[in-house]
């Protein structure tokens, strides 16, 4: 180290600047709320024509995936009620945000999800079978049956594994984005979180770090109006979450999250700006959680069916994109074809569930691997003790259900 | 000596002639305890995520929001560090918060407030600052919720001076210990169990009395025995009792101690039992290293019971790994009746 002390480049010596003073008490309140960027209207009519620039094939693939996820979520939610999996989280009403964003990013960009971003996973190639096997926790699960359902991750797809404690992924994304900048990489760290998760202390730390230390990080907030049963009115004040970002010195966009073209264009713009300026960007998507928070929730207990229906029929991302494609003549297929896609996905999920439930559990050895990089002696001892116990009482345990048996 | 440090309050006057035992779930017992304490003292309030209008993430606070309103049952934004810090501040001011964590696993985001702001306040302020506060939530395994929802925090919190740490088992424990916790002027960590919430037990006539509070620092002997002492707490008491029943049919008599209070530990009850039986099995869900069993083993050796031991102490603990999710893996991760029976037989080896 050549330098022992580094003086700040900006001197803090006092300098009188008359223009920075006022002579009356006029506290600031009620900033002008940031408006939502939109390209198509609620009926799929194109309004902002200069953003009609997404390739036809991409748009159709996005639409196919959005309707597929809707079908998959339906079956998996019901399969929890039938006891086939223990837990699930649907993403009804929010797939324009996740699929559109991921389509606008580059494959080398890291994604740090929260838990409702199956759209991000599947756009990059995560399969229905991978999802179902993870939810079941059988030996085919890439996560070796270690995690609760919907806690997917994939090193190949550059998506960091879902973690339960809220918002912890956000400062991690700041850190990763810092590394990308320091290494001069054409990569960003994109992190998802809900408007409720933005109440956690980690959100503040992450935002402050990212702008102050100049991280190549894209903050993506899904404001879907509810955090389990807590509505936004009980979660925060001020101009939603986007209103907080400029206070950190960060460039900010608020986007109509149910408008796929706005999502795609907004994210594409943000990514280019991050790489060009080497500083973070903040996007808030205004959307709505049409389904329950999870299978442990029954949302009609705290909101009316009319409210849900007003979004389901009045501002639905799949309907808006579908109408846009039809009106622009971009949808190659007819309704019958779309119904066939839905039917095929349903059958595929059902087959994956059936096949998955017939698979064995991860092996007993895998109880002890990966705690550390190698199986340490005390764990080896405990494995031996466990094997002895299971051998002695083998008629009381389903040994044949473990891959590799005893 | 420990008992001198606590202000034990027996506000109880026997009036059992009018009350009869009643069956209820542990969830209902906790709800009843909070209801009675909210009614008894206007300074008591409940705070946490989903505790109010949603009736509680596990429905433990059902009906309280309707009865006491939003000023006493407070729904918070999602920030454990935030609402725990705020509650400790309220306690230092003189209010009596009951802080609910959706699970003790999430309380790690607030642990600095529990330890550095609450546990140490009285000592550091030479008695000026009293943090009379109850932290409660589900602890340990819950079934199918994997590593970040299944850790047992009994040994972490019972390590800290300044905290009282309680772990109820049945309805009597849950109701009377929670009431004692609320009325105690010290910060209390109350470790509940999600699986026990739905289990029914008889609430005794004594515990039904709204003035009855349990003594803190006293364990309960659930079953008297002669040959082996089994020490357990929370859900593990159930498996210990089943193991004792199974072993009794083979002629082995086990004494089952339900600790109830992890800090302070009821050393006297444990040592008296060891002097009688000479053999000990400690059961816990958590990991072995630095666990509750380790402390019990040490205190038996130090407490004058060493020469009464006829065999080394046996611990039954959870497997030393982050909890896996897959059903069959989780099933062999935590102790059940079979492992406790095995341990008792082990500790008796050479005795018959």
From TrEMBL, chain A:
Catalytic activity: N(6)-[(R)-lipoyl]-L-lysyl-[protein] + 3-methyl-2-oxobutanoate + H(+) = N(6)-[(R)-S(8)-2-methylpropanoyldihydrolipoyl]-L-lysyl-[protein] + CO2
Family from the record: Belongs to the BCKDHA family.
Enzyme class of the recorded protein, top EC level: oxidoreductase
GO molecular function terms listed in the Swiss-Prot or TrEMBL record: branched-chain 2-oxo acid dehydrogenase activity
Signal peptide stretch: none
Record domain Dehydrogenase E1 component: where: 65-363
Obligatory cofactor(s): thiamine diphosphate
The species this protein was found in: Paramecium primaurelia
Keywords: Oxidoreductase, Thiamine pyrophosphate
Highest taxon, organism lineage: Eukaryota
Protein name from the UniProt record: 2-oxoisovalerate dehydrogenase subunit alpha
TrEMBL record, chain B:
Gene Ontology process terms (BP): pyruvate decarboxylation to acetyl-CoA
Catalytic activity: N(6)-[(R)-lipoyl]-L-lysyl-[protein] + pyruvate + H(+) = N(6)-[(R)-S(8)-acetyldihydrolipoyl]-L-lysyl-[protein] + CO2
Keyword set includes Oxidoreductase: yes
Superkingdom of origin organism: Eukaryota
GO MF term list: pyruvate dehydrogenase (acetyl-transferring) activity
Oxidoreductase found in the keyword field: yes
EC number(s) from the headed UniProt entry: 1.2.4.1
InterPro entries listed in its UniProt record: PDHB_mito-type (IPR027110), Transketolase-like_Pyr-bd (IPR005475), Transketolase_C (IPR033248)
Alphabetical UniProt keywords: Oxidoreductase, Pyruvate, Thiamine pyrophosphate
EC category name: oxidoreductase
Cofactor: thiamine diphosphate
Signal peptide: none
Domain Transketolase-like pyrimidine-binding stretches: 24-199
Pfam families: Transket_pyr (PF02779), Transketolase_C (PF02780)
Matching PANTHER family: DEHYDROGENASE RELATED (PTHR11624), PYRUVATE DEHYDROGENASE E1 COMPONENT SUBUNIT BETA, MITOCHONDRIAL (PTHR11624:SF96)
Job of this protein: The pyruvate dehydrogenase complex catalyzes the overall conversion of pyruvate to acetyl-CoA and CO2.
Protein name: Pyruvate dehydrogenase E1 component subunit beta
Organism: Paramecium pentaurelia
Origin organism lineage: Eukaryota, Sar, Alveolata, Ciliophora, Intramacronucleata
């Amino acid at each position: 180290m050549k330098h022992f002390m580094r003086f700040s480049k900006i001197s803090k010596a006092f300098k009188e600047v008359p223009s920075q003073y006022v002579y009356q008490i006029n506290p600031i309140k009620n900033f002008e709320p940031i408006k939502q960027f939109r390209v198509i209207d609620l009926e799929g009519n194109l309004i902002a024509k200069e953003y009609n620039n997404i390739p036809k094939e991409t748009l159709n693939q996005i639409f196919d995936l959005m309707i597929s996820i809707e079908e998959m979520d339906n079956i998996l939610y019901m399969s929890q009620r039938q006891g086939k999996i223990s837990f699930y989280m649907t993403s009804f009403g929010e797939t324009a945000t996740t699929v559109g964003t991921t389509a606008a990013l580059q494959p080398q960009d890291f994604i740090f999800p929260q838990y409702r971003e199956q759209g991000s996973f599947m756009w990059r190639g995560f399969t229905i079978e991978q999802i179902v096997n993870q939810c079941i926790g059988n030996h085919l699960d890439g996560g070796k049956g270690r995690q609760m359902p919907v806690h997917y991750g994939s090193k190949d797809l550059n998506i960091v594994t879902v973690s339960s404690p809220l918002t912890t992924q956000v400062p991690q994304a700041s850190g990763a984005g810092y590394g990308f900048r320091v290494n001069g990489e054409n990569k960003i760290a994109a992190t998802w979180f809900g408007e409720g998760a933005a109440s956690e202390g980690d959100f503040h730390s992450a935002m402050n770090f990212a702008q102050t230390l100049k991280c190549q990080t894209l903050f993506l907030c899904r404001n879907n109006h509810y955090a389990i049963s807590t509505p936004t009115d009980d979660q925060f004040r001020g101009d939603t979450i986007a209103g907080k970002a400029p206070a950190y010195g960060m460039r900010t966009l608020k986007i109509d999250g149910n408008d796929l073209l706005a999502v795609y264009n907004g994210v594409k713009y943000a990514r280019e700006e991050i790489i060009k300026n080497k500083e973070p960007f903040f996007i808030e998507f205004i959307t709505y959680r049409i389904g329950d928070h999870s299978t442990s929730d029954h949302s009609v207990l705290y909101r009316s069916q009319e409210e849900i229906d007003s979004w389901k029929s009045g501002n639905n991302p799949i309907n808006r994109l579908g109408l846009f494609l039809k009106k622009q003549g971009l949808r190659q297929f007819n309704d019958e074809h779309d119904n066939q896609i839905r039917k095929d996905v349903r059958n595929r999920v059902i087959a994956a569930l059936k096949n998955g439930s017939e698979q064995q559990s991860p092996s007993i050895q895998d109880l002890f691997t990966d705690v550390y990089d190698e199986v340490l002696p005390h764990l080896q001892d405990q494995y031996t003790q466990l094997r002895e116990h299971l051998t002695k009482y083998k008629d009381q345990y389903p040994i044949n259900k473990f891959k590799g048996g005893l | 000596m420990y008992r001198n440090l606590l202000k034990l309050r027996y506000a109880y006057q026997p009036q059992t002639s009018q009350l009869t035992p009643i069956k209820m779930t542990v969830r209902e017992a906790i709800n009843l305890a909070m209801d009675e304490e909210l009614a008894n003292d206007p300074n008591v309030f409940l705070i946490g995520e989903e505790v109010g209008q949603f009736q509680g993430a596990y429905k433990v606070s059902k009906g309280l929001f309707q009865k006491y309103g939003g000023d006493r049952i407070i729904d918070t934004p999602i920030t454990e560090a935030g609402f725990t810090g705020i509650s400790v501040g309220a306690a230092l001011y003189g209010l009596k918060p009951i802080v609910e964590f959706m699970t003790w696993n999430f309380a790690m985001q607030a642990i600095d407030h529990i330890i550095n702001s609450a546990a140490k306040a009285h000592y550091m302020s030479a008695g000026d600052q009293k943090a009379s506060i109850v932290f409660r939530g589900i602890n340990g395994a819950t079934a199918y919720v994997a590593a970040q929802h299944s850790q047992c925090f009994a040994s972490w919190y019972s390590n800290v001076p300044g905290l009282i740490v309680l772990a109820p088992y049945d309805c009597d424990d849950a109701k009377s210990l929670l009431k004692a916790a609320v009325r105690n002027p010290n910060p209390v960590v109350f470790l509940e169990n999600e699986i026990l919430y739905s289990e029914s037990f008889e609430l005794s006539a004594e515990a039904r009395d709204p003035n009855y509070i349990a003594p803190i620092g006293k364990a309960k002997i659930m079953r008297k025995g002669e040959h082996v002492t089994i020490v357990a707490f929370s859900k593990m008491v159930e498996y210990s009792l089943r193991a004792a029943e199974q072993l009794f049919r083979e002629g082995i008599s086990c004494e089952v101690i339900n600790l109830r209070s992890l800090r302070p530990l009821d050393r006297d009850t444990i040592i008296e039992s060891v002097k009688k039986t000479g053999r000990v099995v400690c059961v816990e869900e958590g990991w072995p290293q630095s666990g509750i069993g380790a402390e019990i083993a040490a205190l038996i050796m130090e407490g004058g019971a060493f020469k009464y031991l006829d065999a080394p102490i046996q611990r039954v603990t959870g497997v030393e790994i982050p909890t896996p999710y897959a059903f069959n893996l989780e099933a062999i991760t935590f102790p059940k009746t079979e492992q406790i029976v095995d341990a008792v037989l082990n500790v008796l080896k050479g005795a018959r």
